[in-house]
């Protein structure tokens, strides 16, 4: 029998092929396109072939559509209504599934006809969101076990009340126990992991700090007996066979579908292959599109609501690298909102990706949600001057000065996963980077209220909760330094700011300089 394992991951609520930048935007991705590819693969399968489909997490958060759905409970079952009709056999939870809390997650899981797997998720609340650690499927006498796993690093990012009574364990010992148990019960073991690779696929050298966020290479090394591995989380496009195990990672937003094939005969697995199927040229699944069209129309109308006006410096972002290198009125405005909401003078924020366009003169909800793409809440932390300087040195390492004097983004922030959101710009301090200096010695000026910041000086700073928990390799920020938490997410705080200040006067900040 030829066994095919199809997968999507990190769709992030992009159902239609649009990035929502304009009402008529057309993009080469989306779950409705991936649905067509999955159906085509199933229809093309021979009578004796078996096609299994896996939804590998981060489905229900991440797009303007999900921002709308999070505020409208009647629409929250749309995701699993679609995936059930597409024909997924199992699902896995991603880290962003928890961003709006467990009640929202349970609402989104309604009306599905497949199990959610989570072998490394335990605790009192686990049975309310996870059906089983694994699922055994059988077809024509062939038994396939699918083990579902989620990155164990969630507790380092997520708000505590969103994961109350849950525990996330390292995937390696959990999987080893299950594989040892299942090996003599089934013909094929498939692991579906919402996590990625912590080491280079060819050399095995670490590509990031080994925090446990991504453990796929450790899993393959420590747990023999895995026949296929589906990964995600990093938004990479991977199709490879590693030490005989076929591996896929299908990007984000449904831009590709992962495809693994195996030949299974007499309990033996052979001829493993891995590939990615592009969805760009696939039409949207017409029946599914018609089903969700009313929701899409409501979302598009909701996004075009005017919320405010800018009468100051331009907040449109046209040169992302320059915005990071010299600060920008849009970033300064976000920092102003954070400071205003918390009464905290020092604030930092990020230009999350190069798609961020900022705001026009007339500002709509569409612009807000397309520019601030995460449901971050805020925390205020009490830190030392040494902590602040260490954070700024981390930011300064974002840049590389080439021999010709030009500046580019350091490879650490681009590969293997693009992490532009891990560079921050600050408000409320005056600081200078000298990129001619070695990394770790680039902060040559750091002042607060006109005076040099000293290492033991106590300071308060407002950050989003991801950064406040140390996310992005910022260990100087941590939950034990939090002195206050703010439950509203940033897009709501931005809207509230415009309700009080319907016209804003954006300015080009002058507190940050770079020498190169």
Automatic annotation (TrEMBL):
InterPro entries linked to this entry: 5'-Nucleotdase_C (IPR008334), 5'-Nucleotdase_C_sf (IPR036907), 5'-Nucleotdase_CS (IPR006146), 5_nucleotidase/apyrase (IPR006179), Calcineurin-like_PHP (IPR004843), Metallo-depent_PP-like (IPR029052)
Protein name (record): 2,3-cyclic-nucleotide 2-phosphodiesterase
Record's keyword terms, sorted: Hydrolase, Nucleotide-binding, Signal
GO BP annotations, alphabetical order: nucleotide catabolic process
Any one GO MF annotation of this record: nucleotide binding
Domain Calcineurin-like phosphoesterase, residue spans: 4-236
Record-annotated 5'-Nucleotidase C-terminal domain positions: 323-478
Annotated family: Belongs to the 5'-nucleotidase family.
GO cellular component, one term: outer membrane-bounded periplasmic space
Cited Pfam families: 5_nucleotid_C, Metallophos
């Amino acid at each position: 029998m030829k066994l095919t394992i199809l997968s999507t991951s990190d769709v992030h609520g992009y159902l239609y092929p649009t990035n929502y930048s304009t009402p008529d935007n057309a993009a080469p991705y989306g779950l409705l396109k991936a649905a067509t590819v999955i159906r085509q693969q199933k229809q093309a399968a021979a009578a004796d072939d078996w096609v299994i489909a896996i939804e590998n997490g981060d489905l229900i958060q991440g797009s303007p559509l999900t921002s709308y759905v999070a505020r409208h409970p009647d629409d929250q079952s749309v995701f699993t209504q679609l995936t059930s009709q597409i024909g997924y056999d199992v699902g896995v939870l991603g880290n962003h599934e928890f961003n709006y809390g467990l009640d929202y997650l349970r609402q989104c899981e309604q009306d599905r006809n497949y199990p959610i797997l989570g072998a490394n998720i335990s605790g009192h609340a686990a049975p309310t969101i996870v059906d089983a650690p694994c699922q055994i499927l059988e077809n024509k006498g062939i038994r396939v076990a699918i083990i579902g796993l989620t990155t164990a690093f969630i507790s380092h990012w997520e708000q505590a009340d969103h994961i109350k009574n849950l525990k996330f364990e390292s995937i390696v010992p959990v999987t080893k126990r299950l594989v040892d148990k299942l090996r003599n019960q089934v013909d094929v073991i498939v692991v579906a992991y919402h996590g990625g690779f912590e080491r280079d696929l060819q050399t095995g050298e670490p590509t990031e700090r080994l925090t446990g966020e991504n453990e796929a290479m450790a899993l393959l090394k420590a747990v023999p007996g895995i026949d296929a591995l589906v990964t995600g989380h990093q938004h990479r496009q991977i199709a490879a066979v590693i030490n005989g195990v076929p591996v896929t990672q299908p990007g984000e937003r449904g831009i590709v579908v992962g495809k693994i094939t195996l030949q299974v005969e007499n309990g033996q697995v052979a001829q493993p292959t891995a590939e990615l199927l592009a969805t760009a040229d696939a039409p949207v699944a017409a029946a599914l599109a018609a089903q969700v069209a009313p929701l899409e129309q409501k979302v598009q109308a909701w996004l075009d609501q005017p919320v405010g006006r800018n009468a100051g410096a331009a907040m449109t972002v046209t040169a992302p690298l320059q915005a990071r290198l010299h600060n920008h009125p849009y970033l300064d405005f976000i920092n102003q909102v954070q400071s205003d909401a918390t009464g905290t003078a020092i604030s930092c924020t990020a230009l999350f990706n190069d798609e961020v366009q900022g705001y026009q003169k007339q500002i709509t909800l569409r612009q807000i949600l397309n520019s601030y793409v995460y449901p971050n809440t805020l925390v205020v932390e009490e830190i030392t001057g040494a902590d602040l300087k260490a954070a700024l040195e981390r930011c300064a390492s974002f840049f590389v000065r080439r021999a010709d004097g030009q500046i580019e983004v350091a490879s650490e922030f681009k590969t293997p996963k693009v992490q532009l959101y891990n560079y921050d710009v600050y408000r409320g301090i005056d600081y200078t980077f000298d990129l001619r200096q070695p990394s770790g010695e680039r902060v040559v000026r750091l002042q607060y209220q006109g005076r040099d910041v000293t290492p033991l000086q106590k300071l308060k700073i407002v950050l989003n909760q991801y950064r406040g928990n140390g996310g992005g390799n910022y260990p100087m920020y941590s939950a034990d330094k939090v002195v206050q938490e703010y439950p509203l997410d940033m897009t709501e705080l931005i809207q509230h700011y415009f309700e009080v200040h319907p016209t804003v006067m954006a300015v080009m900040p002058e507190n940050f300089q770079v020498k190169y």
